[in-house]
Specification:
By secondary structure, the chain is an alpha/beta fold. About 45% of the residues lie in helices and about 10% in strands.
Length: about 325
């Protein structure tokens, strides 16, 4: 990771067939200057084997620059992240692209593919023996042509050996925000999400799609939404699935079933996710001792919170604070509950 003072370099690797939506998502997350909102500066490079028209030109530089590294030359620049994605899933990618991806992974560069971009990573051999995800409608095709890859059937995004893959369309937004969150903190990701008018946090383990609503399901969704709002206001309390089910007027089993059908995740996993998000904000915004952060976020103890940080974020609360603590503006008050 580069220092805070140096823009973090991201490379959008493009070639004919790239999906316009994926280009737009990556550009919106990393190609917009939001430093006035506390978001770090980024250097988004659009690189290609040769110039070709971009499918979506809402930003300057409508044509990506040929990248010397893809042509066999090695400029004196740090290796960037590369994020391939294309609609043509079976046509081989240019050999220079596949070779550049292999070299990047060997150097330890994080690589992420949105939706069908997983096919490109598989062509490069980077997913053999690893887990990967793609759009649910492409999983059979992916398994047929890349049998050495372990395809995860139902998730939004996953990581294996510093290689990230995501499901379709909106899951690409989720992955990009997750990568931003893990490298620059929850506040930066939330600021970008607010700017994009999108949900700030969906976990990778959430289902790709949920059941189609019916009038009855709509009523259940309204009831469950009020229960979730209640839970968010009372995260510091010892919430249980049984207690939340009672508030919804359902049995615990029925509540869990309807909750998963409505949100794509289980009540317990949702609670942990919300508590982690609350703890991240407290660690970034306040000087509260770690045990107090654990209490306010509803983990009950520092040990429990530390275990969840390790499992979900691969770090500790103290290390997270050291990396992402933001100075308080003069006259501001810490978060209170």
């Amino acid at each position: 990771m580069t220092s805070r003072a140096t823009p973090h370099r991201i490379a959008l690797l493009t070639f004919p067939g790239i999906r316009a939506f994926d280009v737009s998502v990556i550009t919106e997350v990393w190609g917009v200057d939001r430093t006035d909102r506390g978001v770090p500066a980024f250097d988004l490079l659009r690189v290609a084997v040769r110039p070709h028209p971009r499918p979506h030109a809402r930003r300057p530089h409508p044509h990506p620059r040929p990248h010397p590294r893809l042509a066999g030359r090695h400029p004196h620049r740090p290796p960037p992240d590369r994020r391939p994605s294309a609609d043509d899933h079976l046509t081989p990618a240019p050999p220079q692209v596949l070779d550049a991806l292999r070299r990047a992974h060997t150097r330890g560069t994080p690589i992420a593919a949105l939706c069908g971009g997983a096919f490109t990573l598989a062509q490069a051999g980077l997913l053999d023996g690893r887990r990967a995800i793609t759009h649910w409608n492409l999983t059979d095709l992916f398994r047929t042509h890349h049998p050495h890859v372990t395809v995860v059937p139902d998730a939004l995004f996953i990581e294996d050996d510093n290689i990230w893959t995501s499901a379709g369309t909106a899951a690409g937004i989720d992955l990009c925000l997750h990568l931003l969150r893990t490298t620059h903190g929850a506040e930066a990701a939330a600021a970008v999400a607010r700017s994009m008018v999108t949900a700030p946090f969906r976990t990778g383990t959430q289902a790709q799609f949920i059941e189609h609503p019916t009038p009855g399901a709509d009523r259940d969704a309204d009831t469950l939404a009020s229960v979730r709002e209640y839970a968010l206001r009372h995260l510091h309390e010892p919430l249980t699935v049984t207690g939340l089910a009672a508030r919804a007027g359902m049995s615990p089993r029925s509540f869990a079933r309807h909750f998963s059908a409505t949100t794509g995740t289980t009540p317990q996993r949702w609670l942990i996710t919300q508590r982690l998000a609350a703890a991240q904000k407290l660690l970034e915004r306040t000087d509260h001792p770690i045990p107090e952060v654990a209490r306010r976020a509803g983990f009950g103890s520092e040990v429990t919170m530390r275990q969840h940080f390790a499992a979900r974020l691969a770090t500790s609360p103290r290390d997270y604070r050291a990396a992402f603590r933001r100075p308080q503006p003069a006259g501001s008050s810490p978060m209170a509950r």
